[in-house]
Write a structure and sequence with these properties.
The protein is of the alpha+beta class. It has 10 helices and 9 strands. Strands 1, 2, 3, 4, 5, 6, 7, 8 and 9 form a 9-stranded antiparallel beta sheet that branches. The relative contact order is 0.14.
């Protein structure tokens, strides 16, 4: 059942901008709405609807902080089709209006000095695919911690069949953690998607995947690329990438989708998906 609730959590994350409800989620999973509500709360200690609203507002905080999109545009991108209801929900969650949240973040950012230790470039990728398994960092009372050993066992087998693939970690919470401290009531839930970024000449469609893995289509998009040598350098690489993007005078802005780290042959590569 935890695998089903993982799929539920991923579905909620992937449909933040859509006006879908618990019945749509239940139909997606093949369970009743009451089963989904009960099992999701058992797995994550939060209801699906409350979880979705938190994730919507976290994405809104990222877009308010890191893009010039106006508040109405951000509301729609985060699944709110009424400007007033978005503003009320945001203020309840962050104790600041969207406008004041944006001003506060920019004021804080202006007081910080970026290191500029890492160079960032804007690049474009064509349609690709990732094969990912979601892992959760959680205390002992939350299921799913055993997934790491399961993943290590199967990743090498998948990579042997996909010779041009690259190890990748997608981090849905990375930008949120950069913008604000994780809320105390869901701080136990830190997510990562570990797997393979499939080479353009590899065909992953005919490979049978172990149950916890999923295929994720990556459409053509622009991204900010920053290379670094050690995973311990990720926080500084992220800060420099954000600083670079905020000071550009063009139309490339952070989309709010999951940043990724690719394990290239001689370096690590941070990719942050962009609007543009």
């Amino acid at each position: 059942m935890f695998n089903a609730m993982t799929r539920a959590e991923i579905w909620l994350q992937d449909t933040l901008d859509k006006p879908l409800g618990i019945e749509d989620l239940a139909n997606h999973l093949g369970y009743s709405a009451s089963q989904v509500r009960r099992q999701f709360r058992l797995s994550f200690h939060i209801s699906p609807s409350t979880y979705r609203e938190k994730r919507r507002l976290e994405r809104a905080a990222v877009l308010l902080s890191l893009t010039p999109l106006n508040i109405a545009q951000i509301a729609i991108r985060c699944g709110y089709y009424n400007h007033s209801s978005f503003s009320r929900a945001f203020q309840r969650h962050y104790q600041l209006t969207p406008r004041n949240f944006r001003l506060t973040f920019k004021s804080t950012l202006n007081q910080q000095s970026p290191t500029h230790d890492f160079a960032t470039s804007i690049e474009k990728t064509n349609d690709r695919q990732m094969i990912l398994m979601r892992l959760y960092k959680a205390p002992d009372d939350i299921p799913g911690l055993g997934n790491a050993n399961y993943h290590n066992k199967h990743l090498a087998c998948l990579q042997a069949r996909l010779r041009l693939s690259t190890t990748v970690v997608a981090m849905p919470d990375l930008l949120t953690d950069k913008i604000n401290a994780v809320n105390s009531d869901i701080s136990h839930l830190t997510r990562s998607d570990i797997g393979l970024y499939v080479g353009h000449k590899d065909n992953a469609q005919n490979i049978a995947l172990p149950v916890p893995y999923r295929r994720v289509d990556v459409p053509t998009h622009y991204y900010a690329k920053t290379c670094f040598q050690n995973l311990a350098h990720l926080p500084k690489a992220l800060s420099d990438t954000i600083s670079h993007l905020l000071h550009r005078q063009d139309s490339y802005h952070i989309s709010g989708h999951s940043p990724q780290v690719l394990w290239q042959t001689d370096h690590l590569e941070l990719r942050i998906p962009l609007l543009g």
